[in-house]
Amino acid sequence: MARVYNFSAGPAVLPEEVLKEAAAEMLDYKGTGMSVMEMSHRSKAYQTIIEEAEADLRTLMNIPDNYKVLFLQGGAHQQFAMVPMNFMKNKVADYIITGQWAKKAYAEAKLYGTANAIASSADKTFSYIPDCSDLPISENADYVYICENNTIYGTKFHTLPNTKGKDLVADVSSCFLSEPVDVTKYAMLYGGVQKNIGPAGVVICIIREDLITEDVLPGTPTMLRYKTHADAKSLYNTPPAYGIYICGKVFKWLLKNGGLEAMKEYNEKKAKILYDFLDQSQLFKGTVEKKDRSLMNVPFVTGSDELDAKFIKEATAAGFVNLKGHRSVGGMRASIYNAMPIEGVEKLVAFMDEFEKANG
Ligand SMILES: *Cc1c(COP(=O)(O)O)cnc(C)c1O
């Protein structure tokens, strides 16, 4: 059975090497006589798995000692609530609205306090990142919130906003580990792993230690307090054990392949192939302002719904799958995460070129 080129925005492509390793260990993980799914999360074998995963992530991202790494559940959506519940001491937070995910986080924060939308790119269907060099940051804001890479619209903050000294919280779900980051610029960054790291069911939170306190909004459930999970090293209750194991394998795969510097170079090379093609094409057009283009999610259109549908149908038949754009924007979107091989992008572009010649 042949594997396809999977351009899904998430859950998304994983490194084949990792999948093969997991398959080989399915019935007997390192002489335990059982799979990782079947073992106690309190066992020695599992302890090693989760500790190595955290250590490898710390190495990959150069995470300072005063940041905690938490492996949680509930997806990015749960963080939309956990962030305000844990951080809204003054009950004020500023949100920069660059797409649907930021909008949802903003709406959720409103349940807990005053959330201010201090910038937005809604006026042009989120096709750009607003100028964030001098925003009206609220004097008593507990934090400033961004969605760093906008999975649906294909934009990315290439410069972080000037928060005027306020703590920055970022949803990095769809750009996690795609390039090096300076963790110290964030109070917290978090992401669901199903975009660029592993199977759905795990969300990784990296939080500056001093922010993890007992001083949370009244009524915050034990399970939704960062302190609960930080104190228990992500083993307060049964964690998404198998998912963390796969994440750990992906971290090792990244380390073996040169880490995030090498990943960035590879991702830039891949994205350039697709963007260069779009920039010269008479049929296909990118939908995003060039300066704000994402390396991970590349939306494009033909300008005709009929041709879009025809393209998606023929591409799928040729083994390029999940190219349909998000239901809220239409058109096409190629998600080209870390694990998408460069051949996948080259072949997609060759296919697009043929399609253009036949339909242009
Ligand atoms: C996919 C995605 C989400 C939603 O993730 P869930 O795990 O389904 O809650 C949130 N933010 C970003 C940037 C995403 O790409």
Give a brief description:
The protein has 9 helices and 14 strands.
Which secondary structure elements does this structure contain, and how are they paired or packed?
Elements: E1 5-6, H1 16-24, H2 44-61, E2 67-72, H3 75-87, E3 92-97, H4 100-109, E4 114-120, E5 144-147, E6 149-150, E7 155-156, E8 168-171, E9 188-192, E10 203-208, H5 226-231, H6 241-256, H7 259-280, E11 285-286, E12 297-301, H8 305-317, E13 320-321, E14 332-335, H9 342-359
Helix pairs in contact: 1-6, 2-6, 3-4, 7-9
The structure holds pyridoxal-5'-phosphate (PLP).
Structure description:
The protein is of the alpha/beta class and 360 residues long. It folds into 2 domains: 17-256, 3-Layer(aba) Sandwich (Aspartate Aminotransferase, domain 2), CATH 3.40.640.10; 258-359, Alpha-Beta Complex (Aspartate Aminotransferase, domain 1), CATH 3.90.1150.10. It is 35% helix and 16% strand. The protein contains 9 helices and 14 strands. It has helices at 16-24, 44-61, 75-87, 100-109, 226-231, 241-256, 259-280, 305-317, 342-359, and strands spanning 5-6, 67-72, 92-97, 114-120, 144-147, 149-150, 155-156, 168-171, 188-192, 203-208, 285-286, 297-301, 320-321, 332-335. The chain has a 7-stranded mixed β-sheet. A 3-stranded antiparallel β-sheet has the order 11-12-14. Strands 1-13 form a two-stranded parallel sheet. Helix 7 (259-280) packs parallel to helix 9 (342-359). The longest helix is centred in the C-terminal third of the chain and has 22 residues, at 259-280. The protein is globular. The two termini are 34 Å apart. The mean pLDDT is 97. The chain binds pyridoxal-5'-phosphate. Residues 10, 75-77, 101, 147, 151, 171, 173-174, 192, 195 line the site of pyridoxal-5'-phosphate.
